[in-house]
Design goal:
The structure is a single chain. The protein is α/β, with parallel strands linked by helices. It has a single domain, classed as Rossmann fold. Helix content is 44%, strand content 11%. It is built from six helices and four strands; from the N terminus they run H-E-H-E-H-E-H-H-H-E. It is globular and about 50 Å long.
């Protein structure tokens, strides 16, 4: 339980519903965009529905929710911070991840443009880019040692991320301890990209 935190349940693909729910929920100083889908398909088998759903959630929802929240921040005249949860998959091609890798790469660039345009309003925007995170979904998808071995073998620290690894990085980027950090991607990948 977190006092003062209100949970909104809304279909992120329904822009009108999101506008109504998020618009009425402010005022905001901080935002973490963490919703995502991963419909893994080989490139030659990518379906239009998988593409559209991934674009709607992994990219469009972040853009839209961030617009609503940033407009409120600007109207209040308060500084703010936005952290978008991306992925190491935005930086490295992964088999069967054509859509996921692409939408996360688009999210990284969106975050940079947001940082550039919102900076004059004292709103910082960054991404965190984790490796596989051992959430419930992560454990289901990556607990098979045969499947996970190839990925873990490419991570110098030799393990996947835990939820706290990501949360602590997000907290840093939301805090005043990162007051001069905007437009950056913080890799939480155990060194995957250097291997």
């Amino acid at each position: 339980q977190c006092p003062g935190i209100e949970t909104l349940c809304v279909d992120l693909a329904d822009w009108e519903a999101v506008e109504a729910a998020v618009g009425a929920a402010g005022p905001f100083e901080l935002l973490v965009n963490n919703a995502a889908v991963a419909e893994l398909q080989p490139f030659l088998e990518v379906t239009r529905s998988a593409l559209q759903r991934s674009l709607d959630v992994n990219f469009g929802a972040v853009l839209h929710v961030s617009q609503i929240v940033a407009r409120q921040m600007i109207a209040q005249g308060v500084p703010g911070a936005i952290v978008n949860v991306s992925s190491q998959a935005s930086k490295r091609a992964l088999r069967d991840h054509a859509v996921y890798c692409s939408t996360k790469s688009a999210l990284d660039m969106l975050s940079k443009v947001m940082a550039m345009e919102l900076g004059p309003h004292k709103i910082r925007v960054n991404t965190v880019n984790p490796t596989v995170v051992m959430t419930d979904m992560g454990r289901i998808n990556w607990s098979d040692p045969q499947k996970s071995a190839a990925m873990i073998n490419r991570i110098p620290l030799g393990k996947f991320a835990e939820v706290d690894d990501v949360v602590n990085s997000i907290l840093f980027l939301l805090s005043d301890k990162s007051a001069m950090t905007t437009g950056s991607s913080l890799m939480i990948d155990g060194g995957f990209l250097v291997s």
